[in-house]
Design the sequence.
């Protein structure tokens, strides 16, 4: 039986400016999360680390244990499932504390792509040492996540007849939430006219369809509920969790980039949690590109395929709407700390710390991560109560 | 940043060697006949008994994008330029630049693969439109 709660949250140095290294940011976030929980650092006995695909073990890895002077850990690893790594680590932490393998596990992600003299685009253009067929992408000038995601975005438009306004509604709505979040990177209002007039990055993707790089770190502390009862902050219970990895091939018949593992992950997590769609009070999706908000709403069943644009244009996911989505501004306008961005916002909402952006109903939240070209999906069903009401 | 060049690796060497002489080669499974590109095992039956065979070098546009932003100075003079993911008639999908104009490029167009030398001895597939969309 799963018995795991998030008891500490640490957010560190989220900025568009150069900062300390990813490892130092990660260390500060872990210390902040422990302090938030009211736990001495010495009581952390598990450390699960993940990093950006562009970073290396030297940037952030197992050495974080020694950076933090954490002795005699009972659980330590670096996990990699692309954008799904952060939730995958929290899932592992939840299982570890449930079964007594560790009692207080810190899960941390940090990234520091912005350094003096390097722009965001240069950070995203950085290509891994690609050889073989992977090198064709760069030889063809298909750079960045924007280049990659423009391909399935084109197919989504072709398949469903989606309009620029469908994607614009994601960007404008998400910016509306960011305006209510002091932590968000881009808070000034965005209009549909501004969205439509913005330059193309990789057409059909415009500037506002894409998240921008930031430096920063987020850590959470996971413990069992009995341990949580004696700590500083109200525990946020992990009721259910799942993953889905479609394994679509770049071959005829493959639907890579549009077929998410979300539906599979939903079935696992909702069964574990004993909830259905109507129990979900808000969603925090992985939204590095506007397409991902549309596909997540559809894959989870909040909308029929191809209908998410109309759903968002109706205001349903905006402040005051029936299904608040990405209430901190998501990746697009909040901050792009990959899988930890939606986790952090869900914890803030469920704790009641979201101020003027608080969701009217906030008992149960759905949090998702999406990695690769919709290759890796992971989720959490989080709640203020131990069991779903 | 200089022009990013295609680089062969062990799994793709016959593909790139074929491009150097203007042809396209793909892997065919000796067990089940399925076509693929750059894999260790057959995608369909998981056999390791694979052989390189000539492809017709034709396919259709599965997806495409117009790259406007200049991520690499090597592409500055070209932007905006079109990149296509082409599904070859045998099944595998391939990425490359496509010669097209904005008014006519669309999904489903028939294309052929042309090998273009991007740097000394480094050939990449570039797509030329040969016909209209087919159903
Ligand atoms: Zn076979």
Sequence:
């Amino acid at each position: 039986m799963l018995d795991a709660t998030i008891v500490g949250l640490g957010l560190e140095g989220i900025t568009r400016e150069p900062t300390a290294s990813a490892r130092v940011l990660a260390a500060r976030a872990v210390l902040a999360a422990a302090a938030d929980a009211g736990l001495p650092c010495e009581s952390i006995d598990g450390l699960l680390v993940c990093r950006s695909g562009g970073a290396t073990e030297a940037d952030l890895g197992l050495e974080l244990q020694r950076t933090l002077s954490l002795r005699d850990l009972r659980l330590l690893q670096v996990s990699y499932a692309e954008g799904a790594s952060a939730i995958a680590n929290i899932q592992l932490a939840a299982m570890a504390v449930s079964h007594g393998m560790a009692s207080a596990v810190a899960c941390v992600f940090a990234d520091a792509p912005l350094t003096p003299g390097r722009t965001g685009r240069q950070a995203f253009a950085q290509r891994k040492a690609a050889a073989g067929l992977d090198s064709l992408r760069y030889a063809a000038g298909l750079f960045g996540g924007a280049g990659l995601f423009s391909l399935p975005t084109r197919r989504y438009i072709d398949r469903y007849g989606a309009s620029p306004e469908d994607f614009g509604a994601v960007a404008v709505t998400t910016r509306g939430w960011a305006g209510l979040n002091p932590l968000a990177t881009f808070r000034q209002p965005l209009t549909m006219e501004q969205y439509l007039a913005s330059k193309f990055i990789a057409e059909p993707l415009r500037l506002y369809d894409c998240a921008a790089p930031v430096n920063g770190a987020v850590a959470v502390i996971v413990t069992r509920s009995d341990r949580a009862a004696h700590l500083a902050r109200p525990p946020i219970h992990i009721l259910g969790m799942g993953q889905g990895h479609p394994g679509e091939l770049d071959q005829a018949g493959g639907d890579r980039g549009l077929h998410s593992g979300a539906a599979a992950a939903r079935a696992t997590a909702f069964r574990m949690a004993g909830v259905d769609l109507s129990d979900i009070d808000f969603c925090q999706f992985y939204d590095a590109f506007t397409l991902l908000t549309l596909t997540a709403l559809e894959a989870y069943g909040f909308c029929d395929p191809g209908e998410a644009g109309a759903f968002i244009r109706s205001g349903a996911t905006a402040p005051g709407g029936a299904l608040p989505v990405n209430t901190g501004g998501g990746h697009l306008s909040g901050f792009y700390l990959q899988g930890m961005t939606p986790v952090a916002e869900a914890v803030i909402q469920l704790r009641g710390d979201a101020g003027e952006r608080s969701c009217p109903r906030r008992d149960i939240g759905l949090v998702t991560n999406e990695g690769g070209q919709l290759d890796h999906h992971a989720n959490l069903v989080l709640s203020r109560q131990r069991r779903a009401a | 940043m200089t022009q990013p060049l295609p680089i062969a690796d062990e799994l793709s060497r016959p593909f790139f060697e074929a491009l150097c002489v203007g042809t396209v080669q793909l892997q065919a499974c000796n067990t089940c006949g399925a076509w693929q590109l750059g894999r260790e095992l057959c995608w369909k039956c998981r056999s390791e008994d694979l052989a390189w065979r000539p492809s017709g070098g034709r396919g259709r546009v599965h997806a495409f994008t117009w790259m406007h932003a200049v991520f690499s100075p090597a592409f500055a003079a070209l932007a905006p330029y079109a990149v296509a993911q082409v599904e070859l008639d045998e099944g595998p999908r391939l990425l490359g630049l496509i010669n097209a104009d904005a008014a006519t490029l669309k999904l489903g167009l028939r294309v052929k693969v042309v090998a273009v030398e991007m740097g000394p001895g480094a050939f990449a597939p570039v797509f030329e439109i040969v016909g209209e969309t087919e159903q």
In short: Chain B has one domain: 13-133. Chain B has a mean pLDDT of 95.
